[in-house]
Amino acid sequence: MIDTRKRDVSKIDQVLSGLPADSSAVDTEVEILRSRSLATRVALKLNLVADPEFNGRLRKPSLASTLLSAPMGLFKSAAPVLSQRSAADQKALNDRKELEAVVDVVLRRLKVARAGLTYVIGIDFTSTDPTKASMIANTFADDYLLEQLEAKFDATKQASSWLNDRLGQLRVQVEQAESAVAAYRAQAGLIGAIGSSLTEQEVSNLNQQLALAQASSAEQEAKVRTARGQLAGGSNGEDVGAALDSDVVKRLRQQRAEVSGKQADLQTRYGARHPEVQRVDRQLVDIDAQIQQEINRSISNLDAQANVARQRVASIQSSLGRARGTLAGTNTAAVRLNELERNATSVRTLYESFLNRFKETTTQQGMEDSDARVVSKAKIPNTPSFPKINLNLALAVMLGLGAGIGAVLLAEALDSGIATSEDIERFLGVASLGSIPLLSSTQGKDTGGGGESPSDMVVERPLSAFAEAFRNLRTSIVYSRVDKPIRVIAVTSSLPGEGKTTTAFCLGRAMAMSGSRTVVVDCDVRRRNINRLLGQEPAVSLMEVLTGKVTLDQALVLDAASGAWFLPLARSSFTPKDLFGGQAMSNLLNELKARFEFVLRDTAPVLPVADTRALAPKADVVVFLTQWRRTPRRAVQAAFELLRLVGADIAGVALTQVDVREQAKYGYGDAGYYYRPYRKYYAQ
Question: Domain boundary at 331, 354, 384, which?
Fold first, then answer.
């Protein structure tokens, strides 16, 4: 903290000033309340080290803590260093670490915050025990105020101690300076009163005395001459100037005047014969005698005084001459004396100021007041502050909804496949021909589902939802072009594994069972999956027909269950020649169109194989298959571009392997969305 309260022991105001009333000072006090030193003080005062809530060492170890403590053997190399410590030092270190850990817990549970822009600071503490929470919060407030008082007391104590030490030093300096002045005065003979030396005072006094003595001598000479002239003229001495100026005579005359006034008063009151009047008369006679005697002594002493005055003038003149000689020598020494006196005065002044400050600081000690007060004590809470069940439930619901919506939005953003007929029209710009369901999604208790394969399901359960999907697909294909008849149909997709062969096989069976003479031609020379669905491996196939080795009748295979015809590919039928784009393939198509109402061609995927691009233009329409929610839209769009480059007529897109149960939840606006209401319509 940057303490804005400056210690100042040179002023009389106060040793440690109060807090300034500004925002930064309040924020500083907030940080002091959060300080580690105050938390340590509270922890020691309340002995929180012995509380299992704050000291994890006192709690029962959990499985996680046991597992975390297992690798401690990795630090075995430090054991010899630690063993060099004494047991007492090691215990003190462990106790210190334990206390620091407890303080960390206390600080994490403490919350100190300023209330807006006011000077009020709130102290919150969280504990599992409501009484303990209130007690610790109040202890923080009390110890904070106590710490303020201790800080001021320590500051005053330190100031007093410093002043006392400084006074001791100044006292020695004052004594030394004054001793130096006194010693130099004695050495140089400059001892005297304040402002002058004895010699200066002596010269000054002698000058004054000489002037007075000379005046007095002249006066005495005049008095002597006057008195002698009056006596020579026949005077009794009463009018002699010495007698007139005599204090004794003046007092006696004053006394006589008082007694004379009293005499006149008594005579008026009692008469001349009254005893009191007679006593006053005797006093007047006595006073007159004393006056006469004093006049005689004054006159006789005038000559003596005049002689003494002359001798005094001579003596003073002699002493003045000697003093003036001594003063001339001491004036040079006075320069050093003045310097010593100025030094002593400055040291004495400094000492007196520090002495006064020491007395004030000593008086102030013990009268400190804290800069804060407790507005209200922390009460014991009646309800726990955490967890807040209602709030947590509300947050859980909101977070759950948010997470669900976020997951849906993320799934939508990451879902690059096609899920509904609306997606087909929006992203691909072609018609939706229908959906081929995943067989397992259509089977259940209410549909009488068994273990049939998709190819057999069309024949064995013609009224099932699975079989109905192919009849819907047939209708969509046949009526996809109203301006021309649809005879040759190419079934393809963008990638392998999207159900082309199964769709073509089942669609051929559905068409044959509807009364249409239908043939299915296997044009995928790399897979030859028609053979797998037929359950036989033919000896001759499409390739032999195209090369002219066999006739069409020799290669055709009849499906007795449905009445459909199949033109498969034999295992050894692969040839590197481009037979699909030649005249042989065109001749074969013409022959098939002459003998059959519908010609279905199961072709290879568009993107990895070029054969389909040679076959697609020779078909009336191309039925494009895409796996539900799996095939990326970009792959379908790329395949469309390749087909359009060769002039293929794309009738539309059919979704394959559709999970009708999931589509009923997902595909709002699509026919599959209503599968649940109408699934019981299917008898099988």
Answer: 331
Looking at the fold, whether 536 and 654 belong to one and the same domain comes out as yes
Distance of CA 175 to the CA centre of its chain: 58
**What is the H or E stretch that residue 521 is in?**
strand 518-522
Identify the domain boundary among 331, 346, 364: 331
Residues 405-446: tens digit of each pLDDT: 998 888 777 777 888 888 899 999 999 999 999 988 887 655
Tokens at 604, concatenated: 């290879």
**Tokens at residue 649, please?**
């007529």
**Cα gap 257→263, rounded to integer Å:** 10
CA dist 68 → 62, 71, 101, 534, 639 (Å): 10, 7, 17, 64, 57
| 599 bridge partner residues | 488, 519
DSSP secondary structure code for residue 7 in this structure: B
672: DSSP letter: G
Burial of 72 (0-12, 13-18, 19+ CB in 10 A): exposed
Domain of 509, in residue numbers: 417-438+470-631+643-672
Overall pTM surpassing 0.85 (yes/no): no
Amino acid in position 538: P
Helix axes 198-232 and 275-364, enclosed angle (nearest 10): 170
- Residue (of 176, 527, 169) closest to 351 by Cα position: 169
A 10 A CB-CB count for 409 gives: 10
**Four-CA torsion 460, 462, 466, 471, nearest 10 degrees:** 140
| pLDDT exceeds cutoff 60 at 653 | yes
- Tens of pLDDT, residues 549-592: 999 999 999 999 999 999 999 876 556 567 788 889 999 999 99
Question: Please, how many CA atoms are within 13 Å of residue 558, restricted to the half-sphere of its CB?
Answer: 6
Nearest to 503 by CA among 550, 461, 466, 540: 466
